Amino acid sequence: MAGPRHLHDPVGTTVAALLVAFGAVLIGQTGEMTPLGSVFPITVSTAMMVLGALLIGRNVVIGLRGGRGEAEPEETARGSKVRRIAFFGVMMLWVALLPILGFFTASVLGFFAVMATALHERVGAREAILLVLAGLVIVGGFYWVMREVLLIPLPAGSLF
Amino acid sequence: MDKFVYLFEALTLVNLTLAFVGVLLGIMIGALPGLSATMAVAVLVPFTFAMDPASGLIALGAIYTGAIYGGSYSAILVNTPGTPSAIATTFDGFPMAKRGDGALAITLATLASVIGGLVGVLMLMFLAPPLAGVALAFGPPEYFWLAVFGLTLISALSVGNLIKGLMGACLGLLLSMVGVAVVGADVRFTMGSQTLLGGINIVAGLIGLYCIPVLIDLVATRDPHLRVETEAKGYRLREAWGILWAEKFNTVRSSLIGTVVGILPGAGGSVASLVSYSEARRTSKRRAHYGTGEPGGIIATESANNATVGGGFIPTLVLGIPGTPPDAIILGALLVQGIRTGPTLFTEQAPIVYTFIFGLLIGTILMLPIGLIVGRYAYRSIIAIPKAALVPTIAFMTVIGSFAIHNNIHDVAVMLGLGGIGWLLNRAGFAPSPIVLGLVLGQIAEQGFVQSYLIGNAQGNIWAMFFGRPISLAIAGFAALTLFYPLVAGAIGARRARRSQADLTAEARDGGS
């Protein structure tokens, strides 16, 4: 027996609609290109739009028939949303601070900020000291290898 | 058999030490996402100038082969290919590690890498001049079809929703078009940014799309990163040999595919491993398990990508055309040493060439004990390190690895941006692998397509360019077979089931009457 009518896989359908719009924007940009440069983008964008339309149509039909919603992957459905957002925010800040503070300073700050988002239980003083030492050794060690051995010019920023 | 005289020249203490240190360094560099085999070889080339030519080449070959193998560690343990060659290793390696079979996955990757590497080197030793012709037989249409063949893997990777997989591949292809076009030099989709003129780097894309979503989900729960195996302990070498024996055809086929693809300039280990994975899955009886932690998948990719090392040296030494990017650097080192590559190299400078090939052979064999020990240590470390230290360490690796590609922060920003988009798309059911496949194969496919179109147009027969060449047709045939085989096999199976059902019904009716 068919269930209540609702849009099947609403997140997937929304992304499909966004990708269809994205494909249209990209095709619009090919007007300034030579035929050689535009043939592949037009073909691939068109394919993406057709596939997106197919997916939307399929989801609408399944929804009208009262099909069940598509389950979200297990890993992305479980756990704390706040920690996820905090992690990504810290990473963005880390990258933004690299040229301002310098690679080493920004990486030390970023490392411990990410560590804080990944901590789920209270840690004792001994464990905390070990974690801090491990962080400094890892960041310092790689910084030294990259800078002195591999001679990679790391951004110095206002500190180092 | 006179070649074997050079075996003893390769077996000096200096050469053995160089091979050992080279493999170890290569494994460590290859295991870190962002630090590629090309970089490992490039950084260490100057040190070889002070050595005699054969020893220098042995060191470079050992670093190269170690780095290609080392890419499998991070692919298996943290779902991020250390090098693009290990993309397909993540498909089955990480699921195996997650369910507690990480030690087995690493042992399998080690054994497969050693066997693949040996096949590639033996082909280099005995069949280099005739095989070098393969590089010249491949024109733009063959490259185009090869990329299409790699893309057919999407049908295997999009279990449950082929449309989403194909859309992801289209998105990956579009990402590969950002920057200056490979043919025609149009500036495309850069949004006016000069930093995007060089395009989206494949390695930055790989790190972002594979690693950042894993980290985002890792911080959200208390669960350990990998499940710790409770019963089986140690290297699980006997079990791995048993699996490898059962997959012997897969191993040999993948090694041969790796060697041949390695010969093709510009194709490289990523294409070789994707094509061999695709073939392994198509021909396997357990094809439904591929992508969920099937050992055959690891064997296919790891034997193929290490076979490209020997394969890549074939056009490098015989024709002076580097088969892979690290080969181009080694070619430069050869020229500095005063060695002129070409068809006469194997006769006029046989001592150096064969000592080098034997050195490569020794380096590949040394990879077995070194790889098993380092792999075991890496696996135990990943399990033992608490999540609060593991997550920031991997996050730091993603930053430093993507920065090291071109020494600029824009690659790090691209990596992070793609990681965030990848996580959101994954949440909507769009898996990262088809996007990565599109990104990796996009330029090869476009260059092959546009060049074939231009040549065909000039000759007045575009269709013949794409469908009139025997190698093209063969690759296109395999691509079609990979794409439609599951459907055809399913239809045949259903027909047989219906027929046997009809027979049973008829027999029952006859018996009853």
Describe this structure in words.
The complex is a heterodimer of chains A (160) and B (513). Chain A is mainly α and 160 residues long. Chain A has 6 helices and no strands. In chain A, helix 1 (10-29) runs antiparallel to helix 2 and helix 5 runs antiparallel to helix 6. The longest helix of chain A has 30 residues, at 35-64. Chain B is mostly helical and 513 residues long. In chain B, strands 1-2 form a two-stranded antiparallel ribbon. In chain B, helix 3 (37-48) packs parallel to helix 15 (325-336) and helix 6 crosses helix 12 (248-263). Chains A and B meet through helix 1, helix 2, helix 4, helix 5 and helix 6 of A and helix 9, helix 10, helix 18, helix 19 and helix 20 of B.
SSE topology sketch:
The complex is a heterodimer of chains A (160) and B (513).
Chain A: H1 10-29, H2 35-64, H3 74-77, H4 81-101, H5 103-118, H6 125-149
Chain B: H1 5-10, H2 13-31, H3 37-48, H4 53-78, H5 87-98, H6 102-137, H7 140-151, H8 154-157, H9 162-176, E1 179-180, E2 187-188, H10 202-220, H11 237-246, H12 248-263, H13 268-283, H14 295-318, H15 325-336, H16 345-348, H17 350-384, H18 387-406, H19 409-427, H20 432-459, H21 462-467, H22 470-512
Helix pairs in contact in B: 2-4, 2-17, 3-4, 3-15, 4-5, 4-6, 4-14, 4-15, 4-17, 5-6, 5-14, 6-11, 6-12, 6-14, 6-17, 7-13, 7-20, 7-22, 9-20, 10-18, 10-19, 10-20, 12-13, 12-14, 13-14, 18-19
* Protein chain pair with the most extensive contact, residues per chain: A-B, 74 and 61 residues
Largest sheet of chain A: none
Strand order of the largest sheet of chain B: 1-2
Helix content of chain A: over 70%
Radius of gyration of chain A from the CA trace?
24 Å
Mean pLDDT over the full residue set of chain A: 85
How far apart are the termini of chain A? 67 Å
What level of helicity do the residues of chain B show?
over 70%
Over all CA atoms, what is the radius of gyration of chain B?
23 Å
Outline of chain B: globular
Summed up, the helix count of chain A is: 6
The helix-strand sequence of chain A is HHHHHH
